[in-house]
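Review session, final week

We close the course with one last complete record, chosen because it touches almost every idea we covered. It is Trypsin-like peptidase domain-containing protein, a protein from Actinomadura yumaensis with 373 residues. Go through it on your own first, then we will talk.
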Amino acid sequence: MRQSPGPWLVRVDDVEGRVRGGGTLLDEEHVLTCAHVLDPDAGAVVRARGGDGGIKAAVRDLVPPSDEGHRGDVAVLRLAAPVEGAPRVRLRRKWTVDEVVRSFGFREGAEAGGLTAFGRLSGYDLYGERVEIIPRDAKGPVIERGFSGAAALNAAGEVCGVVVSVVTDLRDASWMIGVDALLRHLPWLREYLVVDDSVNDRRFRVPTAGRSDPDTPLKRALAEWIGDDSAGGVVVVSGAEAATAVAELVGPALPAYRARVSQRERDGGLPFGSVDAALDATGRTTAEMSAAIATALGLRADGGRGLIHALEALGPPVTVVVNSVDAAADPAELCERVLWPIAVRSPLLRVRLLLGFGGEPWSRFADALVTGP
C-alpha cells in the first residue's frame, strides 16, 4: 500500500465534540498528543484529517505536566478501531537551530479544516525538555491556541516534537516537547525513532567471537551515564577488555548490528537509537574521522573547526562514541584537532563523548578515565 510522505495528522475532540487540540497517528492504532488536552477519565474522539467520522479513543499512557509546567505533559491514545493505511510515524531526535518546522492545528475559526503554521526552532529552555519555536514570519499563521498536541514536522515529514504551549498575547513564541524528552517519559516510543544508517560504522556491524558478559559493572556505569539527563561530558575507557565492552554496549543501539545478535545481547546493550554517532578510528586519518562524525550527525562541516561550529548549531544533546582511538592513523593528531576541542566544549555543545582506547589514553583525557589497563 502506498504511504503518505508524512504522518497522518489528527484532531482530538472531547466526547461531547468540542475541539481540544491536535495529534499525530503513530501507526494505525495509536495517537501522540499532549496530556493537557485530554480528560483522562472520559477519553477522547479522534478525527483523521480529511476523514468524515470520529474514532473513540482511550488513554494508553499519560504523563501529566509537572507543577512547574516545564516537564511531562505527553499522552498516547489507543484507538477503538484502527485507521487503515496510516503510515508509521518517524520520530527525529536531531534538529538544528533555525530549522523550519510546520504544525497542523485547529485555531478558532479553522476547527473544521485545520490550518498549517510554520516556525523556526530556536533552543532549549532551562529544563531541557521544551524547545522554543519562533514564528517564521509576521504575516503567516502562527502556532497558537488549538495547536496543542500537534506535531512539529521537519521538511522530511519527521516529528521533531509535540507542541505543548502556544503563542498568546503575553508571549510571541510557542514551545514543543522535544523527542529526547518524549523518550525519557515513554521509552517504548523508541521503536518509532529514525536511526540513520550513517551511525552504522562497518566495524560495529559484525559481532565478534567470544563475546563477554553483557552485564558488567563497566557496562552498567556507561549505560547509566549515557542515559542520564546531563547535557554533555566526556568518559574515557582504556584496555583491550574495555574497548570490547564499548563495542558490545554500543552495538545493540545500531540497527544493522542489532539484527545480528541474540535478544540477550540486545538487552545487555544500549537502547535502540540512543547513540547518534558510533565510529571506530582504526586506520582512519584525522580528516576522515572529522568527516565521519559530521556525516553521522547529519552536519556540514569542513575540518575540526567547522565541526565545532556545526555542533554549536545542533539542537538536542547527542551521544558520540569513538572506539579504538589509539589505533587511528595518527592518534595524537586526532585527539588534538578533533576530539579534544569537542571534549572541552562538551557541556556547551551538549555532546556526550565516549572514547575507547585499546592501550593508554592520550594524556589530556586522563581526568575523564573511568577504567584503565
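Two points worth writing down before the exam:
Residues 1-194 form a domain with the Thrombin, subunit H fold (CATH 2.40.10.120).
The two ends are 55 Å apart (CA to CA).
Good luck, everyone.
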